Prior knowledge:
single chain, alpha+beta, 2 domains, 21% strand
Amino acid sequence: xxxxxxxxxxxxxxxxxxxxxxxxxxxxxxxxxxxxxxxxxxxxxxxxxxxxxxxxxxxxxxxxxxxxxxxxxxxxxxxxxxxxxxxxxxxxxxxxxxxxxxxxxxxxxxxxxxxxxxxxxxxxxxxxxxxxxxxxxxxxxxxxxxxxxxxxxxxxxxxxxxxxxxxxxxxxxxxxxxxxxxxxxxxxxxxxxxxxxxxxxxxxxxxxxxxxxxxxxxxxxxxxxxxxxx
Length: 230
């Protein structure tokens, strides 16, 4: 669904216990703050479910002329009360559009009371902190490239993500296996943690809107802690 079709999805009416947030409000609030910081969106993506009732979107931004990583602003929203409105800042690899989401800059709020005002305020604060956040993510990527990770160890790690950590689902585990044995991108043929990280985030591209942000956050947190990347 493109942006214009997304805007045509009817916004539900407010009640005493429910305050709707329009998809347009989320998108416009992000663009307004990006414009104030002279940041331009290179690519925007909107994934929907239930005929636009559920939305996960992200905007990719060229930052600091970095040819490998860019900024990614991801958000979710719903009109059917299936999930809270959320906004999170991260990074993404230009070569494959895989995302990195740490959850350090985020907003998560139920559709009640002053949700719109709180969301707009948090989006402003997050974009003000983007430079420092991007440098942290860049540092993580450098450390992952330095950490060798051979196939046997990568296979064990993938199993943990599925069996004991409950971070990925069976179809994503199968995709990770395919990427390990036959990478889709030459940049990730090296046997290191960075390649593995991108195999997993590649598998998360088709995550359902209700799980997309949380899966990325859980995965990034697990890798940072497991390999002491801080």
